[in-house]
Amino acid sequence: MFDLSNKVAIVTGSSRGIGAEIAKLLARQGAKVVVNHRSSPEESLEVDSFIKNNGGESTIIQADVSQSGEAQALIKSTLDSYGQIDILINNAGITRDTLIMMMKDDDWDLVLKTNLTSVYYCSKAAVRHMMKRRTGRIINITSVVALAGQAGQTNYAASKAGIIGFTKALAREVGPRNITVNAVAPGFIPTTMTNSLPQEMIETVIKNTPLGRLGQAKDVAQAVVFLASDEAAFITGQILTVDGGLVMQ
Q1: Which of 82, 117, 158, 172 has its Cα between 20 and 30 A from that of 140?
Q2: Tens-place pLDDT, residues 64-97
């Protein structure tokens, strides 16, 4: 089950957090993994070393995927190194949380460009190759915030909700070429991105989660690996929530 041998996977924003866990688990299942970062060379090297020390194969490619040219260069460099791309995980993301009345235009623009526009840039570049091969998996990381909203995160929620619409539309476009496009919506997962959240908010989240706990990065990674596998070949255009039941509330 979930054998990804001879597959090549790109994970954007995989130097830490959920992206790093996804990269490690994909490699553990046999995929050759491209570890991508914008400005975290040391953390990327840690992920790369972990994969190689555990018998996997990986390479690090620096690229700011919020920029069209760099996103295209990431895809080209991967093809130059491996000759194929089977799996694209659009994971890169940031937050710039504040109430809308205090939000700077630059914080809106940066979050939308990093979280949403990067998905467009990377997918567009990868799809050209996948369509020629008539196969491929694209998995976008959205968030339960896109489904339920969260005060102080209008920019983040908008970017992640945009990913959901993008996922469904692209799934319809490329389905005839045997390319699946899905999204995973994590709940509250402890990472460096969520470390700044108030303790009261975290306690409220746990209280409202039927499973009674926060998730872990590996919970999200396992869902991604499933969607990347041959076992998920007839699943496309779907949003898989990995949130302990939080959005049922």
Answers
A1: 82
A2: 999 999 999 999 999 999 999 999 999 999 999 9
CATH superfamily for 8-241 is NAD(P)-binding Rossmann-like Domain (3.40.50.720)
Residues composing the chain? 249
From the CA atom positions of the chain, what is the Rg in Å?
A: 17
Report the distance separating Cα 249 and Cα 240, nearest Å: 16
Q: Which of 82, 120, 121, 156 is catalytic?
A: 156
* pTM metric for this prediction: 0.95
DSSP state of 171: H
Instruction: Judge contact between 123 and 88, C-beta under 8 A.
Output: yes
Give the tens place of pLDDT for each residue, 137-153: 999 999 999 999 989 99
Of 72, 85, 42, the C-alpha closest to 60 is 42
